[in-house]
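Changelog-adjacent note: as of this version, every example in the card shows the full chain rather than a window. The one below runs 341 residues end to end.
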Amino acid sequence: MKETFQDIIGAGAAVEHLKNALRTGAVSHAYILYGDKGTGRRLLAGVFAAALQCETRQENPQTVDRCGTCPSCVRWESDAHPDIITVTHAKKSKSDKRTDLSVDDIRRVVSDVPVRPYGSPWKIYILPDADRMTPQAQNALLKTLEEPPAYAVLILLASSLSSFLPTVLSRCVTLKINPLPAGKVEQYLQEKLHQEPGRARILSRFAAGSIGRAVELSESPDFAQLYGETVDLLRNLPHKDSYELAQFAKEYGRDRERMPEVLSLMRSWYRDVLVYRETRQTARLIFAGEVQYIIEAAMRAQEEGLAQVFAAFDTAERQMKYNTNLELILEVLLLDLRKYG
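Full-length structure tokens:
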């Protein structure tokens, strides 16, 4: 069964705004739901759209959630609702690799809007990655935003508002979806996905407030491998020779997308070392399953050495923005960590 408002964690202000619109009937014809990837903007758009169309809820406007059993909800459950349309890029050829919406895609929406709903009170369009629309595509949408038919609702999904034209922003209700506290993500992983506490804590820190990202990481064999190899390296870093460090750097320095994850894991490890060194407490450690190694590292570390470690992380992250040789950056960092940490 698909989600309802009760299943949405976080997004408090945005959820309350949309629920209040359902209660009062004050539904806008255009919304922008924006927030980091994985914070639930697409989920919220779908739940709101399904609730708007729910036949049982329409008979009782004070009810904000869909019933899940009326014909409209059944069609939504099976991804077959003709009046809830997720707009995707129409590929013109096999070589067309783009996923963002082109001006032709938006013109297709604009030409479809005047066609009345098939049997619903609303015709709802959900536009993913709307912030990646070109100015030409946004301008093509503008007239529909200015003079929409009474039944039309457009829900634009975005990471931020910065790339939208002022004329588009002025005609939309903007609702921000903030990242969740790490503790909330950790709780979700334990209760809903049955992750063991130590792993849930790690995943929640790397998800940066995004349940979607946390779920993705929990199911990713690539992340599991990266985590295992990085932790193994850190456990035994004092005993690793330069060749082994160079091999690790060679493996993970080739991938600009994975490199930040490696650095984040390492920085979190030394954050734990610092926390234990200062407090002699283990309750706040991120790497809860590695307590023995964290304690050993804390016993070896000196305050001045840890300061050098975090300075080395800062240098590596700064160099990543300008230097294409990630392998060398990572190798130098590992040598510094072995020396100071």
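Structural remarks: The chain has three domains: 5-176, 181-219, 221-340.
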